[in-house]
Design a protein that fits this description.
Layout (H helix, E strand, L loop, with lengths): L8 H18 L4 E11 L2 E12 L2 E7 L4 E9 L4 E10 L6 H14 L9 H7 L11
Antiparallel strand pairs: 1-2, 2-3, 3-4, 4-5
């Protein structure tokens, strides 16, 4: 499979770490995909990495930008409604190794099959040590 190349060293290293573990992630469900998306920010084209892993009725998404900003989203959809949803965003400090990020993604995938709306905070525990979150407006 051909994977996109990234200009950003951070995105390229995250992509490389994902490619090394993609086959293992696919065993959690029906697919694990990586894509490169461009978006316009202040009249400049910026690349973004997107990882989407489908785990039966659940979906896990990770978006990453060159400035090390990440957004994660996990949700479980039934035919009639969304049963639960969790999301998290922040910045990966420069000292974080990409295999650690992919290991956290895999740990999140392992939680998906038995997750319910009352337990989504368990995802926070997986990512708390990796993602720096700044002050939030109240």
């Amino acid at each position: 499979m051909n994977y996109p190349r990234f200009e950003s060293e951070f995105l390229e290293s995250l992509s490389f770490a994902f490619r090394k573990r993609r086959k293992a992630m696919r065993h959690h469900g029906s697919g694990a995909n990586l894509s490169k998306v461009y978006e316009w920010v202040d009249d400049e084209r910026m690349e973004r990495l997107e990882i989407i892993v489908d785990c039966f009725e659940a979906r896990l998404r990770l978006h990453a930008w060159p400035d090390r900003q990440v957004w994660l989203d996990a949700r479980f959809l039934t035919k009639k409604r969304q049963a639960w949803r969790w999301s998290c965003d922040g910045r990966l400090p420069g000292n974080r190794a990409m295999p650690d990020v992919i290991a956290a993604l895999e740990a999140t995938l392992a939680l998906l099959p038995r997750m319910d709306a009352g337990r989504t905070k368990e995802f926070d525990a997986v990512w708390a040590r990796l993602i720096a979150r700044g002050p939030k407006a109240v």
